[in-house]
Amino acid sequence: MFGRIGFVVAVALLFSGFESxxxxxxxxxxxxxxxxxxxxxxxxxxxxxxxxxxxxDPFVPGSSENDNTDAFGVYSMEVIPGVYHVRYEPPVDRVxxxxxxxxxxRITETVLLDVVLPRGARLTGTVRDEAGAPVPGVDLDFxxxxxxxxAATVGDDTNNQGxxxxxxxxxxxxxxxxxxxxxxxxxxxxxxxxxxxxLDYSLTLPRGYLIEVDVFDFLGRGVPGADADVIDAATxxxxxxxxxxxxxxxxxxxxxxxxxxxVFIEPPRGYPIVSGVFHDVAVADDVDLGRIDxxxxxxxxxxxxxxxxxxxxxxxxxxxxxxxxxxxxxxPVGVTxxxxxxxVRLVPGTYDMSIAAPxxxxxxxxxxxxxxxxxxxxxxxxxxxxxxxxVAIQAFVxxxxxxxxxxxxxxxxxxxxxxxxxxxxxxxxxxxxxTAGRYTIEVEPPPDSKLRPLSLDDVLVPDSLPGTLVLxxxxxxxxxxxxxxxNPIVDVGTVQFDAxxxxxxxxxxxYDIAGRRVRRLHDERFxxxxxxxxxxxxxxxxxxxPGLYFLRAxxxxxTLTFKVVxx
Length: 567
Fold this sequence. Notes:
- The protein is mainly β.
- Helices cover about 0% and strands about 50% of the residues.
């Protein structure tokens, strides 16, 4: 027994970060009805991560949440807070309805959201190869012709007879038929197909030739999730692709029809590497492009607005190296998302940029010449006749007593993207040259300040920017307490944090005796009174080995610590 206690106190533990074990939940509910107001029973909800587009399960593991509407067309569920794309699918017996995809649904507190499923336009047909044989398993994508955003669909694959029968919201779409890369046929895209009621549209897929490439980063590691874009060298049009992401080892394979193409390799989001390109690839048979090593680059993020100042979705963006006309090292960036945003990584240099709005808006292409990229950059572009106006702003940050706040950080934010930043001086004043427009203004007090952050939504700069921004005082947490029961912990312990006031951000971490953080138990607002968080020593990777640890609770202007022993 005494030997084990000595081991607990003396051992230096060697591990680092671990995920939160206290998962918050918020209520997400509403009605689903059809266009006549009738409730839709058995509608199914699917959730997708708003940043990656990957389908996710937003429920706490082990919960039994139901993601279908009940007999009254009502859905109600507890979900993990986040920003999601939410797809509402009609039940199989309501073939008259089309699914709906709501993008960027922010669920951080209780959300009540009613949805109407519209009557669906129907597209049917048969897909065959050049020999006349049906092609099964072809996936159909519908891209809204006015916004460039992919529409919600279900049951959008051809069956064993090559037949498809899909319903979408009525409108005009670019429709892509994408067979598996395992089949010797190439995808096809049909532009501006108008769907209002029912349309039968059969087609033949041309022969497809396999292009293979191995994608590596500048350290020689295979890059999973890299995406291929292919441009027809003769027409300049982007070709539709299927199975166009690299596997875990960086291997990428896809099919295109015969011709001459430019092949662009796009790294996955978050990788600090730039795109690569193969120009004028002659395709008359299968082609192995070998290996490509993607080099480091700077992140260029931006927002595009239309002539009215609104965010412009579906704008097509193209970059070329100044003086060469070559779209290298980045391919066309693609289209802006629903918030008008784009991002791309580039090697340092000077670039020419063109932004083409959707044809339905009737706007001339916007050209930005000789734009220099030397570091990570954020830009704002506008189709306004004279371009976005730059204005000089000046204001003060003070506390509730009127004293200046030095070292506060002031940010102008659009769609979660920081457009400009300023720091207050010793007099609490900040100055900046910014693009006029509407922003969320965020003010962050200096570290260790006993002040609360400030956020002002929909501020028209410069007209509505206050001359003085006042940071409220944070409540006192001198009487707050932190403990863990039991202590020592054998298998499971409960961390208890008590405070007379709530509503502030609490960061609760567990550190080993070497000062390394091994668990983050909480990092959001807390409630007044008692807050409990569970610690399982044997759960997670790595487990908590026997030894001495320190709990640290960080609040505005206050830090609490507590020693914990794990047996």
